Automatic annotation (TrEMBL), chain A:
Keyword annotations of the record: ATP-binding, Membrane, Nucleotide-binding, Transmembrane, Transmembrane helix
Name of the gene this protein is made from: cydC
Annotated protein name in UniProt: Thiol reductant ABC exporter subunit CydC
Species annotation: Paenibacillus lemnae
PROSITE patterns on file: ABC_TM1F (PS50929), ABC_TRANSPORTER_2 (PS50893)
Chief location category: membrane
Amino acid sequence: MKELAIFTKAMIRERRDILLSILGGFAAGLAGVGLFAASGYLIAQTVFAPPLYTLIMLTSLVKILGLVRAASRYGERLFSHRATFSLLGRLRTAFFSKLVPLTPGILNRTRSGELLARIVGDVESLQFYFLRVAYPPVMVVMVFLATMLFTAAFSIWAALLLLAGMLMAAFGVPALVMIGQRRVHGAVKRKRAAFSTDVTEMLFGFRDLKLYGRLNQREEELQQVSADLAASQRDDALRLLRGQALHTFLTFIISWGMLVLGAYLIVNGSLSGVFLAMLVMVSNTVFEEAAPMATLPAYKQDSEYAAKRLTDTVLSAEKQQPELPANRRSIDDEAVSVSFDEVCFQYDDEWRPALQDISLHLPAGSKTAIVGPSGSGKTSLFELLLKLRKPNRGEIRLNDIPLQELEEEHVWSKCNTVLQHGHFFRGTIRDNLLTEQTCFEDEELSFVLDQVQLKDKKLNDHVLEKGENLSDGEKQRLALARAVLHGGRLWLLDEPTSSLDYITERKVLRYVLDQAAGDTLLLISHRLAGLEHMDRIIVIEQGRIVESGTYEELVALKGYFYELKEIELQMFEASNK
Amino acid sequence: MKRRKAGLLSMLMSRQRKSLVLLAVISLALGAAITGQAALLAKAVQRIFVEGASLSSVTTVVLGLLSVMASRSLLVYGNGMIGLNMAAAAKTEMRSRLLRGLTRSSMPVSLGGQTGGKVSVALDAVDEAEHYFSQYLPRMMEASVIPLLVLGVVFYQHMNSGLIMLVTAPFIPLFMILVGLSTRKKSEEKFDQLAAFSGTFLDSLQGLVTLKLFGRSRQQEKEIERSSLAYRDATMGILRIAFINTFALESIVMLSIGIVALELALQLVVFKTLSFYTAFLILLLVPEFYNLLKNTGTAFHGGRTSMGAIRTVEELLENTAGAGTFSITPSDQDSSERRSEDQDTVDKSRPKGEYESKTSDLGPLPPSMELENLRFRYEQSGFELHTGTAGIKIKPGQHVAIVGASGSGKTTLLHLLSGLLKPDSGTITVNGRELGELDEAAWFRHVGYITQHPYIFAGTFADNIVIGAGHYVSKEDIIKAAEAAGLGGLTEELEQSYDTVVGEGGRGLSGGEKQRLALARAFLKRPAVLLFDEPTVGLDLHTERILQRSITELSRGVTMITVAHRLYTIRQADIIFFMEKGVLVDTGTHEELLDRLPQYAEMVDVQRKGGWS
């Protein structure tokens, strides 16, 4: 159960709600049993024509128990759901704080998005662990024990019969339900995922499929996948249904057993006949309380699977975590020189290296542009510099200090970074500009916003999750403002103005270059025009540096850069109006 | 079209008639089992307790009880199983229709941009619809048969109890429905809020890199906690109402049972008009009765949600139905109508075989084309395209360049000319015949389309090229086409050469390689009409060179229409179509347009400027 350690910890912290819901559930269960016991006894008593007040007392008792049951059921539902949602919150924060230190390492693959979505899904499916797995057995055992004590007062045999029934309900029925479950576990999830990817692929490839006359064939294949999925879903549901039906049957059998046992005991003389109806009704009710036990194993397996996956992810990332050397070094507050020495890098799930034998030296204070076709490895260069990913071979040095000997946080504090898909979080514009280390007056912040051509944004304007309410251009300018305010001496800008029109682009980039005067700057540019004033241009293709030099040198060379530039000149509509 | 109004649901139901009858029969049997069980149990207790009978004398009753119990369990299982089978059949049917609709639909549906939404309908909405068949129908069937049976038995045994039950019964489903509607409204109101709260966690994980780069992770942890708690409180707000209502409902049930019990007790003790057996039987039946009614309420909610989901599916089906360019001839429609008598009407288009009557003879190749007064409108965005009233001719073998700012409708026009989109009005003719009258497959056999983002299917490298052929091709042909498209180097890099799996789950290809793969497809196909969406984004130089060379070769002697982004392509075109905000403003050669169209001249000039320093 090591996997569920985080969960247990979270449960302990929600103990108040959990205890209250257990209390409520226990009260409701007992009241239910009591209610039916009382009504069974009541009806039996009438045979002896008792005085009316006995009857009135009994019927009142029945009603009070009924109300107690409904009320405590209400409390149970309220507290158990509250606990469930609180647990989800705790799990999220717990996993978030666990993932924070692991972040660059855990993302060392191109499809990190899927991994994150999976983590979210797994955490979500863990939230029901309490409600559907941990809680029912506690409740069932408590109610059963109490009922058995009550029954034992009339006949020890009846109590033993209930015990046997409980054992069957807790172990026998679930075991029968689980037959075959292990083999197909996760089949529905897998088939759903397959169907989803296949339909998506069909829609994306629609035009090509249609033109090449392949749509019919593709449709047939998809129909097959869909039928498979429906069959798997039905099988899963049937398994649960089987559990429920078996549980119902067990309930009947035990009640029947109680009847036969009662009859025997009455004939024997060891039980008064007036209790027979009561005992039968008690056993019937107490098993209804145990109904969640039948479906418990399936949920249990799901949660444990999710928990195991989460721990595996976290553990494997922890292993990958690089150990920091004993002697941590740091960069002074000065412009930074950058050098790559035969650096190679390959994503975990890619078949070709993203970067190969990259060697370059960028002196402190230099301004360098990196250009190349999309997918050529430009962004990977930045990821390596930021220690977000680790090179497979070669060494990167900042101010002649190997990157391994620098702490991540230290490197980041020195870098003013604009990534292609920078993240903005819920809050105000001000929140998004300030970081934990920096503090600025509002005037200073507003001034920077002005300079990046975001005059119409106010510091108190709200930013939604992921910056949903900002346009791409606004996001890029806000990201640049954030970088300017960060105060490092190494600038890493990844296509920072690709969504801006060209007049705004010129203004913004001029401002940024002014701010970066004397600092080292690397700019991944989506265009070749306007790179005349950079100290150096590096052209990358398929992970290799194919050319590098000043603008004039490269143009004079009439090589790769020159040809790309010619193509760009031919572009009709490349620059936005 | 008219018959679709009948609804997807009723169509799905008509398929399930047999199962519904079976459900009714089983429900009836179940009702009999429930009353039988109560009767036998009451009987047994009566004999043993009241009459003091010996154990052996009640053997038949007790054994009968056991068998009734066993059959009741089986019947419950049976009803559930029928429900699940119906659900599986309905789901398969809905997905099948959706798939048929999507694959037969025209471009705007498939390229409407919301691919994710459509997939989610096919997956999640259909799954949500399951409840209607697996829960709602069986429960409703049970609820409409069994309580009546129980009530009948009670009436037969003891009129008063029956009357009490009859009066109190309607309150339960009524109350539950009211409760459901109010919570539903509340939860719908809060839905966006809830979604936003639950999205924070994923967002935070996705933004973790930025958050760390700027030292914000600690604050974000608090934000997650805050939003989780807010989510909890919002959800609890909704649930609290639901729970309170359940509490009230349970109290009503309890009260009703109490009234019945009190009346029974009075009859037994005070008036002595009732036997113990009858009283006990009724007391056993009453909870069963109310529980069944309670189940209807629960099923009703699920049913409503499911019906909403079914409507979603229906909407998508309606959007996808019958919008293709290549309509079918009247005689075809008749035959397909007849055949789909009980299959509903959603798909009008049938597999290729039925197009026989349409002309598959395109006439001389490369063809001439003509467009006149084309109009097209995207439903969702409202974007409208119009080519003007004047007829425009493309002579056989001419090269056309469509130019215009981004969003001016260039690609839409290309899709109309290809037949992938159907114009709302106006005509496109090919060799004098209307495009819609041609046999779809025959037309596409001669059309090649090289897009900016060619689709790579999960399959081998060779399969991905062969898709262009449409007929058997030898290995040599494939290799020749691949080499002509400059893919020779790549196949050497791939470990299994042409048999390497590429696409989803296989080897990833770069943008340039995909573009070259599309060229290889075209080299195999050698189309008479070549449609080309010229790349705007940075390709590698190798691909750029190949692209120019290949297009020159492929376009020789064919009619070519290019969405052009490069000046040389435009200069070399025989006619230029200039688009502006969805309107085909003018056509002519480069020189003519430079002369008479200032917007065109400006556009040609714009790219010479640029740059920021």
